[in-house]
Amino acid sequence: MGPRLRSLAPRALLATASVAVALAAADTYVVVLALTDMMSGVGIGIDALQRATPIVSGFLLGYIAVLPLIGRLADLTERQRVLLGCLAIFIVGSAITALAVELPVLVAGRVIQGIGGGGLVPATLAIVAQLWDRDRRGTPLGVVGAVQELGSVVGPVLGAAVLAVADWRAIFWLNAVLGLVLAGVVVVVGGGMPSRPRALPVAVSLVAGVVGWLALAAPESLVTGVTLGVPFVPFGSSTSRLATPIGVVALVLVAAAVALWVRGAWPILRRADLLGALLLGGALGCIVLTFAAANPEKEIVGPLGFALLPVAAFLAGLYLLHHRRADQPLVPRGVVVGRARWALLVSLCVGIALVAVIVDVPLLARLVHTESETVAAFVLVRFLIAVPVGALLGGWSLRWLGDGLVSGVGLALAALGLLVMSTWGRGSLAEFSSTLVLALVGLGIGLALAPVNNAALADSPDDAHGTASALVVVARMIGMVVGLALLTAIGLHQYYAAVAALPDQTDGQALLDAAVVQVEWVFRGAAIAAAVGAVSSITLGLTRRRP
Questions:
Q1: Are 166 and 91 in contact (CB under 8 A)?
Q2: Cα–Cα distance measured from residue 360 to residue 356, given in angstroms and rounded to the nearest whole number
Q3: Do 22 and 121 touch, CB atoms closer than 8 A?
Q4: Using CA atoms, how far apart are residues 115 and 108, in angstroms rounded to an integer?
Q5: What is the pLDDT of residue 13?
Q6: Contact assessment for residue 32 and residue 263, using Cβ atoms and an 8 Å cutoff
Q7: Distance from CA of residue 321 to its chain's centroid?
Q8: Are 194 and 109 in contact (CB under 8 A)?
Q9: Closest Cα to residue 453, out of 439, 474, 438, 435?
Q10: Which 3 state secondary structure label does DSSP give 464?
Q11: What is the 3-state secondary structure (H, E, C) of 397-454?
Q12: 445 close to 410: Cβ distance less than 8 angstroms
C-alpha cells in the first residue's frame, strides 16, 4: 500500500486539493490577456513577441518535465506532504514572477510555478486512489478532471478581472495569497502537518525569502540611500537586480536553502531514482522546448528543435537502459502494463483533440466571425464550459459503465463534432448549431478524462498510483504540445497549396478562404486523433469491473 493519509474528512481534502489544481491550471491560461503587459514589465516591446515565448513555454517546461519525479515521490512519502510541498513551490514561483523586472527572472518564476502547479495533479489523483475504493473512484476522479479543465475558463476571466483594477503583478500576488490559504486548509482538513519540518532549512528559507524580496523589489527608500543603497549597486555595467551585492547574497541563500531541503529529503529522493528522473525529465523538457517554442505560423519545431530532438532521443534511450538495470526505477515495473498502456495512448489522443479546439476555434472566429479577440474567446467558452460538465458526467457514469465504454462514446462524439467543424466556413459560427457542436465536442472530451485515470489507477500497483497518475497527465500534455505543432504543420501545408492555386494571390477574400482551409485541416486531424482514442478505449473495458 502507498503512504498512509491521516485525513478524517476525505471530501474536504479532495475539495481543497481540487481548488489548488484549478488554480494551477488557470495559471496556464492567465497570461493570455496579461502577456503584453508582462512583456512591457520586463522591458520587451510588443514588436519582439518571439522573445516572450519562454514566458509560456517555461511554465509548460516546469509543468511536464518534473511530473514523473513528483508522482513517484507521492508514492514514497505522505501524499499530503507532497501536496503541501507543491503548493509551497507554486507560491514561491508566483512571488518571483510578481517581482520580476527582467525576462530571465520572469521565466524562472514561471518555470517554478509550473513545477509546483503540475505536481498538484498526480498528488491529488493519488490521494483519490487512496481515500476511495476502486469501485467508488469515478466521481472524485471526475471532479479532479473537471476542475483541471475549469482552469481554462477561470484563467482568462481571473486575469481580466484583476487587470481591470490593478496591473499584471497583482495576478501572481493573488496566486501566492490563495496558495497560502489553500496550504493552511490542507493542513486543517488533512489532520495536521504530516511531519514537523526541520528548523534550519525553514530559517534559511525565510531569510532567503526576505533577502530575495529586497533584491528583486529594490525598494526606492533603500536604493536611493547613501549607505543603505550600496548593496543595490550593480556590478560593472550590468542592469540586473541580481548582479548586485544583495542579489548575490540572495542567490547564495537560495542555493543553501535548496541544498538543506534536498539533504533532508535525500533518502526519499534516492529511492525515487533521481538519476532516472533527470534523464526522463530532460527528454520531456527537450520535447517541450522543441515544440512549445515554435511559431506555429512558420515552423513545426522551435529554433533549437533540430538540436534538442536528438538530445531528447538520446536521453530517452539512456533512461530505458537505466530502467532495465535499476533496482528501483523511477517508473516502477508493473505500472505501464495492461490497460495502463492503452490509457496513456487515449490520454495522448485527448490532448491532441483538446488543443486543436482551444487554439483553432478562436482563430476561425477571427477569420470568419469577428475581428475582436474578446468575442472570439467567448466563442471558445461554449466548448470550455462543456468539458468540465463532461468530466463530472463521465466520472459519475463509472458507477455503472465500463471505463472503455464511457471514454469510447465520449471520444466518438468528439470525433463526430470535429468532423462537422472541419466543414465550417463563413457564417457557420453565427448559427446556433455551432454552439451545439462545440458543446458536443467539449462534452465528449470531458467524458474521457475520468475513465482514463480510473483505468490507469486500477491496473497499477497500490504503491505506484502517483506515478501512474503522473504518466497519464504527461501523455495528455505531450499530446497537446506536439499535436498542436503537427496539426498546424498539416494545416499550413494545405494553406500554402490553396494559395498557390489562386489565380489572383492579392485577392484578400480568397486568401482568407485559404486560411479557413488551414483550420479545417487541423480539425480533421483532431477528429482522426479522437477517433483513434475512441477505438483504443475499447481496450479499457466496456463493462464495469467489480472489485
A1: no
A2: 6
A3: no
A4: 11
A5: 86
A6: no
A7: 28
A8: no
A9: 474
A10: helix
A11: HCCCCCHHHHHHHHHHHHHHHHHHHCCCCCCHHHCHHHHHHHHHHHHHHHHHHHHHHH
A12: yes
3-state secondary structure of 235: coil
SS3 6: coil
How many Å apart are CA 397 and CA 412, to the nearest integer?
Answer: 16
CB 330, CB 74: distance < 8 Å: no
Kindly give, in sequence order, each residue whose CB lies less than 8 Å from that of residue 341, ignoring residues fewer than 6 positions away.
none
Distance CA 493, CA 43 (A): 36
How far apart, in whole angstroms, are the C-alpha atoms of residue 297 and residue 489?
8
Other C-beta atoms lying within 10 Å of the C-beta of residue 187: 15
| Nearest of 131, 123, 181, 129 to residue 7 by alpha carbon | 131
Rg (C-alpha) for the chain, rounded Å, is 24
508 CB-contact burial (10 Å; exposed 0-12 / middle 13-18 / buried 19+): exposed
Among 86-100, 335-349, 424-438, the range scoring the smallest mean pLDDT is 424-438
Residue whose C-alpha cell is 490559504: 181
Residue 98 three-state SS: helix
DSSP H helical ranges for 224-338: 245-271, 274-292, 305-325
- At 275-321, the pLDDT tens digits run 999 999 999 999 998 887 766 656 667 677 788 999 999 999 999 99
More confident residue, 491 or 210: 210
CA distance 444 to 466: 26
Provide the residue type at 391 as one letter. Answer: A
- Please say whether the dihedral angle defined by the alpha carbons of residues 152, 154, 157 and 159, taken in this order, is positive or negative: negative
* Residues in contact with 118: Cβ distance below 8 Å, sequence separation at least 6, in sequence order: 24, 62, 63, 64, 66, 67, 70, 473
For residues 18 and 353, give the distance between their C-alpha atoms in angstroms, rounded to a whole number.
24
First to last CA, the chain: 16
How far apart are the C-alpha atoms of 475 and 484, rounded to whole Å?
14
CB contact at 8 A, 444 and 390: yes
Using CA atoms, how far apart are residues 527 and 424, in angstroms rounded to an integer? 14
